[in-house]
Design a protein that fits this description.
heterodimer, A: alpha/beta, Rossmann fold, three-stranded parallel β-sheet, two-stranded antiparallel ribbon, 6 helices, 8% strand, B: mainly alpha, 2 domains, flat
Chain lengths: 204, 126
């Protein structure tokens, strides 16, 4: 049950804090998102810079980079996903416990970027796993990663705990396993996860 | 009961159980939260052994050869020896016969240790 915004601000003036379990729960979730200690290419350098003193991601509660997917909430796909690396990325995503989120950082991670025409580069990680926030740029500046993180926090904050649009981990029927692609003869098999990504129709 | 409460160790016993509870309560609550509220979505990939994203080969319960332990012990002996030998070598020209004799005894003791290890077959990797 949502709290009336007007009533809430009125009571806050009187010194009474009113909240709902959902707000409290989401506040806790968004304030301690632990990213995975995982870098793929040059974007990872920017990601490292973001965690250091100058940009200081710790201000948003995300300084605890976990070296194991078992303890991580957020996968920052920072850099070029080659077709050799893609199965590992998808497997790591699978090994993270719910709730889990993904930020695709940089031109390569969102589309293949400057290597899009290359035979060995995946044209966007969202072919296999659901991406919450895409960041363009080559590489994106640390401010861009911070903004993406703030956007993710907004998304977590707005998620209802019940009913339509609730997070996947609270939905019993939601997909939990994302198939890990295997290297095939010419390309990864399958070339994309049909449940996550729809193959665009190319009109020539 | 009054006897027990009057012993000086009674407060320590209370503190011991308080400390135990302080440590165990969060673990228990976390376990309870995991059991009751966290909806598990297990699958074969998620439950697999974590190996940096690669498919794991073999079992995670690898046993290390105990020979590593003996090597570490021997390394430790000669590591410490080097610490003592360096100042000895630097001050060698200014040292008396007694100091040289003491150092000789020290080195001979270590050599004895090495000879023992050699005789025991530690130096051959099994």
């Amino acid at each position: 049950m949502a709290v009336d915004e007007q009533l809430k601000s009125e009571m806050a003036r009187q010194g009474i804090v009113v909240t709902s379990l959902q707000e409290l729960y989401n506040w806790g979730r968004r304030s301690s998102v632990w990213p995975m200690n995982f870098g793929l290419a040059c974007c990872a350098i920017e990601m490292i810079a973001t965690t250091m003193a100058r940009w200081d991601m710790a201000r948003f509660g995300a300084e605890v980079f976990r070296p194991s997917p078992r303890q991580a909430d957020l996968l920052i796909v920072s850099g070029t996903v080659t077709k050799k690396m893609a199965p590992q990325v998808v497997r790591l995503y699978n090994q993270m416990p719910e709730p889990r989120y993904v930020i695709a950082m940089g031109a390569c991670a969102i589309s293949g970027g400057p290597f899009k025409q290359g035979y060995n580069v995946l044209k966007g990680i969202d072919r296999y796993i659901p991406v919450d926030v895409h960041i363009p740029g080559c590489p994106p500046r640390p401010e861009a990663l911070l903004q993406a993180f703030i956007e993710l926090q907004k998304k977590i904050d707005a998620q209802p705990l019940t009913g339509e649009g609730r997070p996947r981990f609270l939905d019993v029927d939601a997909q939990g396993e994302f198939p890990v692609p295997e290297p095939g003869e010419h390309d990864l098999e399958p070339t994309s996860n049909k449940g996550v990504w729809t193959v665009p129709v190319v009109i020539k | 009961m009054s006897d027990m409460a009057s012993t000086p160790y009674f407060s320590l016993a209370i503190l011991f159980f308080a400390a135990l509870g302080f440590g165990l309560a969060p673990l228990g609550l976390a376990w309870l939260w995991g059991r009751v509220f966290a909806p598990p979505k297990p699958n074969a990939i998620k439950n697999a052994i974590y190996e940096c994203g690669l498919e794991s080969k073999g079992d995670a319960w690898v046993q290390f050869n105990s020979a590593y332990y003996l090597y570490a012990i021997i390394f430790l002996i000669f590591d410490v020896e080097a610490v003592f030998l360096l100042p000895f070598a630097v001050a060698f020209t200014g040292l008396g016969a007694a100091a040289c004799l003491a150092m000789l005894v020290f080195v001979l003791m270590l050599v004895e240790g090495l000879a023992w290890a050699w005789a025991k077959g530690v130096l051959t990797w099994a």
